[in-house]
Amino acid sequence: MDFASYFGNLGLFGVALSAFLSSTILPGTSEAAVIAYEAAFPGRTAALFLTATLMNTAGAMTSWALGRFIPEGKKVSEPTLAKLRRFGTPLLFFSWVPVIGDALSLGAGLIRTPFIPALLFTLLGKGARYAAILGLFSLLKP
């Protein structure tokens, strides 16, 4: 069974699971799941976009929530925290960036950024990324 068939068989649940896990400290490749699902079900792009965006945002906000449980004196990536303190919650727009995105979400929780702005900037960034992925795929598919 090839990769596209595997995710096609799992449906949107597989995309949702991949998107959520990819946005936590666990490894994942939601981009591959999104492209595989789009290739298998090209008429369901809106549902795919919403599912991937919302679940990837939920994963990032889970990391944000975990950051709030880290005691304030704990040693965490100082460069990430310094950037968050300097630029604030708008920096969470870039929480989609591999590796540093997880640190941004966790750090934002650690420095106690407010939930609603953190959610909105994270949602905007995640949505922009999946829109770009799906748009690029539609241009490049055979």
Automatic annotation (TrEMBL):
InterPro entries in the cross-refs: DedA_domain (IPR051311)
Recorded superkingdom: Bacteria
Transmembrane segments: 48-70, 91-111, 117-140
Keyword terms: Membrane, Transmembrane, Transmembrane helix
Name of the protein described by the UniProt record: Membrane protein
Taxonomic lineage of the native organism: Bacteria, Pseudomonadati, Pseudomonadota, Betaproteobacteria, Burkholderiales
